[in-house]
Here is the input.
Amino acid sequence: MKIAILSIGDEVIFGEIVDTNAAHISSRLYDVGLKVQRQLSVGDSDLDIIEAIESLAGHADFVIATGGLGPTVDDITARAAAKAAGRRLVLNDEALAHLHGFYKKAGRDLLPASEKQCLLPAKTHLIPNPSGTASGFVLAIKGTSFFFLPGVPVEMKRMLEETVIPAIMAQNRQLQLVRTRVLKVFGLSEPEIENLLQGVARPDAGLTIAYCVMFPEVQVKLRAEGKDEAVLAKLLAEGAASAAGKLGDYLYGEGDDTIDSVVARLFADKGVTLSLAESCTGGLVAKRITDLAGSSAYFMEGAVTYSNAAKTRVLAVPAALLEEQGAVSSAVAISMAKGIRRLSGSDIALSVTGIAGPEGGTADKPVGTVFLALAGRSDSMSKRYNFFGDRERIRTITSFTAIDWLRRYLLTLP
Here is the structure.
């Protein structure tokens, strides 16, 4: 079964937005055992859209197209699709009824110009849009079924789940099943992970491994293909267990886990409290902690002590220490952690100080130099890191590393 994705919109081909729709569609189809063979993007041009449709018609079984179904002048997908199919563009009564009903329910007045999105190819089947105004539609062209969906992600996703995937699955005659397990790894590069996982893949049995870098982590995707659901489940379980043994504590989670959600569960399980002192991350670590519901049970407080004066005034870091060692140093990081733990009364405290750039680096401490420190009730530790990249990248990997420090520390607690 051949499936293609057609993304329509100037904002996509001009790079103004990232085409997350295509990525989501591919991922969801793969979840149900279907593979996308081709992805194509075109702008808001009649000729380009028609040419794209004609290039896909007859060569794919299904095409999922997104974008260009709205009420504005640049929304021309329906018109181009009608021309490609050799059909008239007509006012669709069902789509019009949906549009009026949507506005009535929202308590808003309908502008006449909005009815443009109800001009659809004649004799088409509608795809309901419970979340928006523009109805989708299905066209058969040269034996290929084209599903046209709005480009608004929340609308597209629901229509994909409720209508498109069920329609494709109903016609799916392939017996091959595809199942996936995703392992989340942090602290190792892609080549290092691949080297560790030698022998885990079993291509002859239908088990393969793919790697996806989602900075700053790496996702290890175990994929099993075959005809028997139980056999695939066993393959994946054995592969995941083998991979976990080789990855050790660099493996932090699986599936929908994030490093933040894993740490949140550990805090809840261990029953300890946390405080933070941040400098170069500007509160990013605290944001990650507090983004998750329930963090108030263990997160006591955080301080963004950006200046040396703030480090001394709030955290009682000795001015002499700052003068002698510099704000970006192991000694100051430990003093910051001890200071916020003492101030808050938390069980553990973590601090971050560093140079995120693009300026401020020296030969001894270049941009990307970061010190983390963790203070418990009876011990403390610190480590220097040398990260690379622009300011955003350095701050991101620093915050991720800080959360991973908490994960590793909490795993040592009874």
